Amino acid sequence: MAHGILAELALILALAVVAAYLLRYLRVPAIAGFILAGSLVGPGGFGLVTDRQAIEGLAEVGVVLLLFGVGLKISIRDLQRLRRSIFGAGALQVGATVAVVAAGARVLGQPPAAALVWGFVAALSSTALVLTVLEERAEEASPQGRFMLGVLLFQDLAVVPMLVSLPLLQGSGDLSWREIGLLLGRSLLILAVIVAGARIILPWIMERVVASRSRELFTLTAILAALGTALLVTEFGLSMALGAFSAGLVLSESEYAQQMLAEIAPLRDAFNSLFFVSVGMLVDPQLWLDSPAAVAATFVSIVVVKGLLVLAIATISLRSWGLGLIAAAGLAHAGEFAFVVAGSALAHGVFDEPTRRLFVAVAVPTMMLAALSLSAASWLVRRRGAGPVAESGTGGGNAVVIVGFGINGRNVARVLRLVGVPYSVLEINAATVRELRQAGEPVLYADATREAVLLQAGVGAARALVVAIADAAGARQITAVARKLNPRLHIIVRTRYVVEIEALRRLGADDVVPEEFETSLELAGRVLATFGAPDSVIEREKAILRREQYGMLTDRERGGARSLAELLAGTSIQELSVREGAAAAGRSLGEIDLRRRTGASVLAVRRPGGVTTNPGPEFRFAAGDLVFLLGSAAALEAARGEF
Known about the structure:
By secondary structure, the chain is α/β, with parallel strands linked by helices. It folds into three domains: about 1-385, Na+/H+ antiporter like fold (Up-down Bundle), CATH 1.20.1530; about 395-570, NAD(P)-binding Rossmann-like Domain (Rossmann fold, 3-Layer(aba) Sandwich), CATH 3.40.50; about 570-640, Regulator of K+ conductance, C-terminal domain (Alpha-Beta Plaits).
C-alpha cells in the first residue's frame, strides 16, 4: 500500500510540474496548473488516484504550514493595524454575502436551512490560494494585500460559528440559540487560553533549541509548533488553519521568526501544491453537462454577487476603485473551508448529496479562475493607472542590510546611526541576537544564505548590503543570492584574503575589503605616523597602494573610486568640541563663514538632541557641540581656533 501511495504521489507531482510549467510559460499562475493536474487524475478525469483521502491528508499539512507562515509574517502589532479590515470590512463582506446569497437561494426554491448554508459557503474564499498568489507577486504588504488578508482572517474566524450552527439548522432542535452562543463563546475562550499558553511555552522551547546550534532540530521544532498547535485546537472543535495561524502569530514577535519562515518554506510549498491538486480532484465535469442552468446560477451567486459586494466594500475602504477591483478579483471565489462547511452540512442532513456535488462542481472552477482574474485585474489597473498595485513592505524600508554583527558590523551600524540611515541586522548567533534585542537594535536571528531570509530582511528594496562575516563560502553565497534578488543593490563584502576578491566580484560584489591587505596598509600608516608623517601624507600613500593593488586584482574600471581616493588623499576628518566662549559659540555657520575663511567644511554636528548632517548656513553652534570637520591639515588647524 505504501508503494501504491508513493506511485500515486509521483504521478500527481509529475502532472503538476508539467501543467504548472506549461501554464507558467503562458503567464498563468502555477496554482491553475496544480488544480488542472488534480482534475486530470481525479475520479472526474482519468481516475488514476484511488487513495484520495491520503492525498487530502497530506494536503492539509500544506494549509497548516501556509497559515503558520502567515502568522510568522504578520505579528500581533500588524494584526492590530488590520483590525479595521478584519472586523470592519471582513464582517461586512461575510454578513452581506450570506444575506444576499441566502435570499437568492430561497427565491430559487431552496429550503431555509439549505439557503442559509449556501450563503455560508459563498461567503468564504480560499486563504491558501490568495496568499500564495500574493506571495508570488510580492503584494502581501500592498494596500489590497492587507485588505484581502484582513477579510480572509475574518472568514476563517467565521467558520467556527457556521459549523457550530449546523446542528440547529438540521431542524432536529438538538441545540437552542443559547446553547449555540455558549458553544461559540467556549470555542473562543479555548482559543484564547491556547494562544496565551503558547506565548509562554513556544518561545521558551525555541530558545533552548537555538542554543543547541542544530539546524535540523530547529527545523523540526518549527514544523512541530505549527502541526502541534493546529492539532490541539481541533480537539476543541476549531479549525487547524486557525490554530496554525495562532502559533505563527505567537512566534512572530520572536527574534527567530524569519529563520523559521525560511526553514519551513520549501516544505510548505511542496505540501501546498498538493492541496491545490486535491481541490482539482473534486471536480465532476459530468455535472456541468447534466445541469448547466443550476451550475450557471450557482456560479453567478458565488462569483458575480460576491465580487460586486467585495468591490463596493473594498473601494470604500481603500478609496480606490482600482484596488477595489483587484480585491474583488482576488476574493470572488469559493474557499477550502467552504468544502468543510458543505461536508458538515451533508453530515447533518442540511445538504443532500446532489446539492453538495453541485457546489463542488462550481467551487473548483471559481478557484482556478481566481488566480487568473487576480493577475488580469492587476494588469488592467496598472494599464489604466488607477492606483498603486504593490508597495514594498518587507524589510521595514531599511536602506542598508548588515550581515554579521561582530566588530565590523558594529562599526558600520554605529556610522549609520550617526548619519541617520535606517538599517537592519542579520545575525546567526542567538546570544548576540538576544543582547542586541535588549539594546534596541533592529536585529533578526537568521541564516542570510537563504533567499527567503534576505527577502524578508528587505534586500529587494535596500540600497546597500554589507556582508561582514568571516565565513568565505557563506559570503559568496549571500553575494550571489542578493545580486539575483536586487540587481541595483550595492554589495560590500568583507573577506579575509586578497585572493577571494575576484571570485566575489564575479558573483556580484561591488566593493570587496580584504582584511590582510587593509591590515598591511594600517601597519604601513602606523610606521609613517611614528616618523612624524602628517595624516594627509599617510592617507595619500594608502590611496596609491590601494589603487595599485586593486588594479592588479581586477580589470573592472574603477575610475570614479580612484578619483575620489585621490581627491581625499590630502584631507582628513577631525572632531572638535565647541568650548564655552569660543568664537563660534552662539553664532551660525553662515556668520562665521568657516569654509571661505579656513577652507574646512562641516560634515556633521552632534549634540544631545541628535545629529545634524551637512548643516546649512542658518545652523547655530552651541557650547558642547561635537563638530566633524573635513579639510587639509592647514584648513583644520585654522578652523580649530573658531571652536
